[in-house]
Design a protein that fits this description.
The complex is a heterodimer of chains A (about 575) and B (about 500). With about 575 residues, chain A is an all-alpha fold. Chain A has three domains: about 1-505, no CATH class; about 505-535; about 550-585. Chain A is built from 25 helices and two strands. Chain A has helices at about 1-20, 30-35, 35-45, 65-85, 95-115, 115-135, 140-170, 180-185, 190-205, 215-220, 225-245, 255-275, 280-300, 310-335, 345-360, 365-380, 385-410, 425-440, 450-455, 460-465, 470-490, 510-535, 540-545, 550-565, 565-585; strands spanning about 50, 60. Chain A has a two-stranded antiparallel sheet. Chain A is globular. In chain B, strands 1-2 form a two-stranded antiparallel sheet. The two termini of chain B are about 25 Å apart. Classes of the chains: A mainly alpha (about 575), B mainly alpha (about 500). The interface between A and B is large, with 37 and 42 residues.
Chain lengths: ~575, ~500
């Protein structure tokens, strides 16, 4: 029952948004309430169910990694729902927003609890297409452009994905997602199928080189929608990868190195490019690409096969959890500086600071912990170049800190309102802050095996006692922050743009569009030439049209008629006809 | 044959007799005409349902009438035929409702509804035919009964379209006739399902049977709008919306596709067709048509014309599914008979509603139409996503089976064709969806004064909502017994003796 409610309640919320009287549409409580069953499933272990009547026989169940991500997703949708209720209070299209919000939520929960290919793909598609409505919400030209680029990329992703799924299901001989990784490990086409999936889901993850829609689309949506886009939905692609990846079963050195190097390219490339942005949300979007790069690296290590999946996959999920809560906190936080004043502002800055620190892997945050997981695995794997990758990972804290302190600076420049004011949506934001901080202290959530593996100790507190071991985390971050502070302090060193981004968001898409425009014109000309050429050739259709042209046919037939009316002609005709008949029958 | 039952005949009579009676009515006898229409439609659905239930519990229904020595008119019910009959009778009922709403106050309603009934008689006749000759009779009957519907408006354009339609279909009929006669000469009377006859003769008459296969295929290909025989279909979309809906979803194109299914599975048999490489030829033509139709659809600004080219493309899914041997592709092909019907009829209803209510016939005029006609365009959106193959709409189920089957058969190029087609479908359907929901109307629209709160007349609205919901549910609950998919799977189990 709880499984169905998880999907049905968000759908109901979507339809309430359309059918309720205009004044009651888009209530934050309805949207948040719709996420409660998912929250329950994330917190409490419930055995899976089969729905033989749904699609092509559906199965719903959860394993540890997906449960962690479901919990993250439910927290984000619930808080973002509450947030949007008051954030969009005066928006004329809030009903419409809630409709797409509910549909997207249903898709996001559904794909996480699906255990078979058909329902997974169904909910994945629902999420993909419904979130279009969130991205385009403001209807500005830039939002439209962002949404349409998103849609094109999403469709390309879906096509790769469905191909991967056809091949995977065929080689597994089963619709169950759990049967796919072993089948790919066995099949000689396994790496190819995985590569297709890598591309298909890579669009959603924002993996290099498929990411360029993301810095356009994630910032275009209203703040709560950006939060779920960048915090929760981006992880759906990751879950997809995890469904396909035969972690611990194969030794695919090439794919492993490919993923690790693409991951690191994203880690550094996106962080550096993000520094050129002036829109705080674009900055965060690049940070998301950068952080998804770390998760790509982790899964890439898994393809080398020397890390057991029961350790690696929950670790990836934990990393996603930490990044998701913190990123959503920051995305929703972009709406705060202009509205929060006085004493509340202190709380706001503490929250934003913790969010930034957590993403960078700073002390006393969940980020320190999840980052040390990555280090542990990089230390354990015998993947060629693991030492270099370890160094790169440590360095990445510098660029992350640089990027996110820049984010804080961008918010800092927004003028604060006077007096002790806080908007209603400050409360859900604080709730999210608490939810994000809470898990770092809660060992109950974690698989104990994983915990002891990374900390070498039994309990979580022991782990935190060993903080000095991870002190490196602190000084790498400090380097980043200090560089940012330095460049800001001494204005003649200030290289950061203030009004216009020094490079446009979406980077390569502009090159692609430019090249596209250059190619499209002659191409279109060529096609129209070809078309007019083809149309002048009497094709099979044309011939029929000519025959069926009444004037021409009537002329021919009346000529024939006139001929037939002449008796000598008819007579001769008859004679010939009978002659032939006679010869044939003889 | 064993027992004679008049039930199959009764199914035909349920629309034939109302059709003839309507011809005798006076134009203004609206109530009587509507009663006859609905009585016939409801009776047919009930009869088909009754017979279907009987068939599933093991009853057999045959009706044999000797036309001449060795020439029999045979109605025989099998699962495939009943499947098609159920589709036509159910969608006929819905379309009748729609047509009543659509043509209210129009001209020549008697003529229209009479031929409308005859047209459905023909297509159920095709569904229930027990042998090749009977099939041919109804196939030609269908051609003749649809012509008055195509030219119904009587405009120059409609008459020209009708002429093109006749040239194509009569031409196709002639070729089919040659094929049917040839088959009779070589193999004698063939009842559907007696594939052993051809199988035993194929080694003796390989050339003749090859030629005959392609003659029959060409004859059927005209109605199934397989390139290069598709030219009549986009032209004849000048017909009124309910006719287009019926033509594209159930009657004419489906008759062709259904005929191809019969030809391959029940006359020649999959074994022979595969062995003789007939199927690869069919596959190439079908694949080309899928792409060609989609590309042509991209260029159309006329709403119905875009839908028409989309039909050209979608119907070939069925042919391609038949042409790739394997249980999965066959299931996909047969279930697409129904799924395409549901989705396309929804789209034509929607196009008709928009044209009837606001007079918009061009896609460029559809900006913001979703706000004014949310239910109509909502149904259209569902159908459009289904055509692209996005789950959970019915089209996804068809595409899933077709694609998976193609992978299983090792025909990877077919997978590429489906992918390209999905991309093209997205490219020509999503702009309509985008305009409807996300664009502001270009100019202030004068709201039509309407009594009541519905976005258009109830009789126009209910059918589109019903078929829209059916398109969704037949995908969403595909695994339930009684869904199109479950029936298609049973039919296929018989062919492949699984």
């Amino acid at each position: 029952m709880i499984w169905f409610l998880t999907i049905v309640l968000p759908l109901l919320a979507a339809f309430f948004a359309v059918f309720l009287p205009a004044g009651r549409r888009g209530s934050g409580f309805i949207l948040a309430g719709a996420a409660l069953p998912a929250l329950w499933l994330g917190l409490v272990e419930v055995s899976g169910v089969t729905a033989p009547w749904f699609l092509m026989e559906s199965h719903f169940s959860l394993d540890t990694p997906r449960r962690i991500i479901l919990l993250l997703t439910a927290i984000l949708w619930a808080t973002a729902g509450l947030f949007s209720g008051s954030y969009l209070k005066d928006d004329a299209r809030r009903g419409e927003f809630s409709f797409y919000f509910g549909l997207t939520m249903a898709g996001n929960f559904g794909l996480l609890i699906s255990a078979d290919v058909a329902s997974f793909y169904t909910f994945f598609a629902l999420m993909t297409f419904a979130s279009y409505g969130l991205v385009i919400h403001s209807r500005t030209p830039s939002a439209r452009r962002a949404a349409n680029i998103y849609l094109v990329m999403a469709i390309i992703g879906e096509l790769f994905l469905i191909t991967a799924l056809y091949l995977a299901v065929e080689s597994a001989g089963s619709m169950l997602l759990a049967d796919i990784p072993p089948a790919l490990a066995e099949s000689p086409d396994g790496p190819f199928i995985f590569l297709l999936g890598l591309i298909g889901f890579g669009v959603k993850v924002g993996a290099i080189p498929l990411y360029f829609w993301l810095p356009l689309a994630h910032p275009a949506a209203p703040a709560p929608a950006s939060a779920v886009l960048s915090g929760a939905m981006i992880k759906a692609g990751l879950v997809g990868w995890m469904h396909l990846a035969p972690v611990g079963l194969v030794e695919w050195t090439f794919l492993s190195l490919l993923m690790v190097s693409l991951g690191f390219t994203a880690v550094f490339g996106a962080a550096i490019y993000g520094l050129t942005q002036v829109d705080p949300k674009a900055n965060l979007a690049y940070s998301s690409i950068s952080q998804m790069g770390v998760m790509t690296v982790l899964l890439g290590i898994g393809l080398y096969g020397d890390i057991p999946p029961e350790l690696l996959l929950p670790a990836i999920a934990l990393y996603a959890f930490n990044h998701g809560t913190a990123k959503a906190l920051l995305f929703m936080g972009t709406a705060l500086p202009a509205k929060v004043g006085g004493a509340w502002r202190i709380l706001m800055w503490v929250g934003l600071g913790l969010g930034v620190l957590s993403i960078a892997g700073g002390p006393l945050t969940g980020g320190l912990w999840t980052k040390s997981l990555v280090k542990t695995f990089l230390g354990e794997t015998s993947l060629p170049g693991a030492q270099t990758f370890m160094l790169l990972l440590k360095l990445s804290a510098v660029t992350t800190a640089l990027l996110l302190s820049r984010f804080l600076h961008l918010l800092y420049r927004i003028k604060a309102p006077s007096g002790n004011v806080a908007p209603a949506f400050f409360l859900p934001w604080v709730l999210l802050l608490l939810a994000g901080g809470w898990w770092t202290m809660s060992p109950g959530l974690l698989p104990g095996e994983l915990l002891s593996h990374i900390s070498g100790a039994k309990g979580i507190m022991d782990f935190f006692m060993n903080l000095q071991k991870n002190w490196t985390a602190f000084w790498t971050i400090s380097i980043g922050v200090i560089i940012m502070a330095f460049t800001l302090k001494f204005t003649h060193l200030n290289v950061w743009p203030t009004k216009k981004p020094s490079l446009p968001p979406g980077d390569f898409i502009h090159l692609i569009l430019f090249a596209g425009a250059a190619v499209a014109k002659p191409l279109r000309k060529g096609i129209s030439l070809l078309e007019s050429g083809i149309q002048s050739i009497p094709g099979p259709e044309k011939i029929f049209y000519i025959i069926s042209d009444s004037k021409r046919t009537s002329r021919i037939s009346s000529a024939a008629e006139a001929l037939l009316r002449r008796w000598e002609f008819v007579g001769i005709g008859f004679f010939i006809f009978f002659l032939i008949l006679f010869l044939v029958l003889r | 044959m064993e027992t004679t039952s008049f039930l199959p005949l009764l199914i035909l009579i349920s629309s034939l007799v109302p059709g003839i009676m309507i011809l005798l009515l006076r134009e203004e006898q609206f109530a009587m005409r509507t009663f006859l229409n609905l009585f016939g439609a409801v009776a047919k659905v009930a009869l088909v349902g009754w017979v279907f239930a009987g068939y599933l519990s093991g009853e057999e229904y045959n009706f044999i009438f000797r036309l001449a020595p060795d020439l029999t008119f045979a109605l025989r019910l099998d699962a495939l035929g009943l499947f098609f009959a159920a589709l036509s009778s159910a969608l006929w009922l819905i379309t009748t409702l729609y047509a009543i709403g659509y043509l209210e106050g129009g001209l020549h309603r008697n003529r229209f509804f009479a031929f409308f009934s005859l047209c459905v008689t023909a297509s159920t006749g095709i569904a229930l035919s027990g042998n090749v000759i009977t099939f041919f009779i109804f196939y030609e009957f269908l051609t003749l009964s649809t012509y008055p519907l195509v030219v119904h408006k009587g405009t120059d354009e409609a008459v020209a379209a009708g002429r093109t339609y006749l040239w194509y279909t009569i031409g196709g009929g002639t070729i089919l006739f040659l094929g049917v006669v040839g088959l009779y000469a070589v193999a004698g009377p063939i009842y559907f399902g007696q594939t052993e006859i051809i199988a035993s003769l194929i080694s003796e008459y390989p050339t003749q049977l090859t030629i005959l296969f392609f003659l029959v295929l060409a004859g059927l290909g005209v109605k199934a709008a397989i390139f290069p025989l598709h030219g009549w279909l986009p032209v004849s979309m000048v017909a009124p919306a309910p006719v287009s809906a019926l033509l594209h979803a159930v009657a004419v194109v489906k008759a062709g596709a259904f005929g191809i299914v019969r030809l391959v599975y029940d006359v020649y048999g999959i074994g022979v067709a595969e062995e003789m490489n007939f199927l690869s030829v069919l596959a190439v033509f079908a694949a080309f048509t899928i792409i060609y139709g989609s590309v042509r659809a991209l260029y159309q600004n006329d709403f119905k014309k875009r839908l028409a080219y989309s039909t050209v493309s979608q119907i070939s899914y069925i042919a391609l599914g038949v042409a790739i041997p394997g249980a999965l592709t066959s299931t996909g092909a047969i279930v697409h008979l129904v799924h395409q019907g549901l989705m396309k009829i929804t789209m034509f209803f929607a196009a008709g509603n928009v044209a009837e209510t606001y007079g918009h016939k061009k896609i460029s005029e559809l900006n913001g139409i979703g706000r004014r006609m949310p239910l109509t365009m909502g149904a259209f959106t569902i159908a459009a996503f289904g055509m692209i193959g996005v789950p959970p709409v019915a089209g996804f189920i068809s595409k899933w089976y077709l694609g998976l089957g193609a992978v299983e058969a090792g025909s990877y190029w077919v997978v590429l064709v489906f992918l390209a087609s999905s991309a093209l479908n997205a490219a020509y359907f999503l702009p309509i969806v985008y305009r409807a929901w996300f664009c502001e109307p270009d100019h202030e629209v004068v709201e039509r004064l309407r009594s009541g709160r519905l976005e258009t007349q109830a009789l126009l609205l209910i059918p589109v909502v019903v078929t829209g919901i059916l398109s969704l549910t037949s995908g969403l609950f595909a695994a339930v017994t009684g869904s199109p998919l479950s029936i298609a799977r049973e039919i296929i189990e018989k062919f492949y003796l699984l």
